[in-house]
Amino acid sequence: MKKHDYDKILFRLNSIWQRLREGEVLSVKDLAQEFNVSTKTIQRDFNERLIQKLPIEKIGHKWKVKDGHSIDKNLSFEEDLVLDVLKEFASSMGSGFGSKANTLFSKLQNTHENPIYSKIEIEDISDKTQLIKQLQESIISFKQIKFQFKNKYRSLEPYKITTFDGYWYLFGKDLNDNKLKTFYIKDINNLIVEDIFFEKNLQALKKLDSAINIWFEPNNDIFEARLLVKEDIAKYFKRRPLSKSQVILKENKDKSIEILLTATSKKELIYEVKKWQPNLLVIEPTNLAKEMLEISKNYYKEQLVFID
């Protein structure tokens, strides 16, 4: 479906939704003429889209809100769709967080079957609610914190709570050695918010924003890498770039593409290349290409052990 087609559908559904909310009884034929579509299209709007979300019923060729029901939660179709997506994401964060999120969503939405399904899995941190609250307060107010992490005490300027591959981390500057670091949130204990203020570190936030995965090294200089993406997976890299820095340099006759992106560590790139082997290859830098070759050789040697 093209974007302008989606926009037309969204506009039509929002208009119908609003009029039903205001108590109108709507004719399929009249709506088809008004929006310059077929009656089958309007029937599809009601039968496949609106009826899932609204307490509505069909009377002959017209639709209205069921007797004894009201649509008092003033959400547009698009707003309700956004909440359905967020609700599905919340359910991916475990039963603890998911049940709390569903209670919140029930205050905003009418009850209906959620048409959205997501395979994203995010770590459940509902047991760390108090810690998250403290971290949020310290980040917003630019206050330093102290906490215990793997049997060591740290003093930190907290910048962001973030996720990588579904796991939660705290990103900030470790004042013990003045380096930018990520800390796995479930290993943080005994946190104290101090009355010591720090300044916003825009450079650190910029490095976090361009990170490819948890293996990024925010204290390192940024370097460029050029990768060959074979035809089999090229469409995925076009749909969703590997990072915000990704640029398509060239589209080859065999439908492979060459991309350029920035990174802060070899591990950051090796992690991604290994996931997509053998369809993702390193062109530059040469030292990284050589390291990937050695990793691949060792992998195949070890794999051969299990083959008769």
TrEMBL record:
Signal peptide: none annotated. It comes from the Bacteria. InterPro entries: CBASS_pafABC_assoc_protein, DeoR_HTH, WCX_dom, WH-like_DNA-bd_sf, WYL_dom. Residues 12-48 form the HTH deoR-type domain. This is WYL domain-containing protein. Keywords: Transcription, Transcription regulation. Residues 223-296 form the WCX domain. One of its GO terms (molecular function) is DNA-binding transcription factor activity. Pfam families: HTH_DeoR (PF08220), WCX (PF25583), WYL (PF13280). The keyword Glycoprotein does not apply. Residues 132-190 form the WYL domain. The keyword Lipid biosynthesis does not apply.
